Amino acid sequence: MNLDFSQIVPYIPFILEGIWVTLQFVLVSILLGFLLGTVLALFKISNIKLLKWPADFYTSIFRGTPLILQLAIIYLATPQLTGYDISPFLSAVLAFGLNSSAYVSEIIRAGISAVDRGQTEAAIALGIPYRPMMKDIILPQAMKNILPALMNEFITLTKESALVSTIGYVDLMRRAQITSSRLYSYFEPLMFVAIIYWLMVMVLTLLGGWVERRMKESD
């Protein structure tokens, strides 16, 4: 075994630039997934079948097919179907955001269902409209219950972000592959990037724990 980590030193700035490149689309994807997931969750708990059925079908599609397949369809099939040459960044945001929203919607739906039904009944009895009731009473309580599951989803999204290297998006993983091809050495660049991913996940884990403790202290 002949390992030489010193050979990747000239490429460290190039690899480190991939952190922000990765975080850019991950953060936008998380925001899209959370916003769309919240809307889908509200549709799922609705008594209106015209809203509930499409939301359930959407979730089954994105949870029932591989993320890498969804990414490939968006990136490769969009130009064929629409004539629009979609960028790797937009493809990544759409694939990860739409996929995440399916999981987030189930997390939020479960959190809302876990809130004491008496809260809803009391709000209805007081004549509080549906939108303020959900925004000011139900969702804040549900968020405290679902925060750990949401953080796990965001951590998973960060780890799976390496899949975008398959469509040429120059993220952390892609930069490790480029470095490996130039050095004809794979272990050192990949291990260096693995440490960076691990650190990113640890930061998210610690942040999630801190937010969870703060929310418990505010009770």
UniProtKB/TrEMBL annotation:
Xref: InterPro entries: AA_ABC_transptr_permease_3TM, ArtM/GltK/GlnP/TcyL/YhdX-like, MetI-like, MetI-like_sf
Name of protein: Polar amino acid transport system permease protein
GO biological process: amino acid transport
Organism: Amphibacillus marinus
The keyword Cell membrane is annotated on this UniProt entry: yes
Membrane spanning stretches: 20-43, 55-77, 190-211
Keyword field: Amino-acid transport, Cell membrane, Membrane, Transmembrane, Transmembrane helix, Transport
Membrane topology qualifier: Multi-pass membrane protein
One Gene Ontology cellular component: ATP-binding cassette (ABC) transporter complex
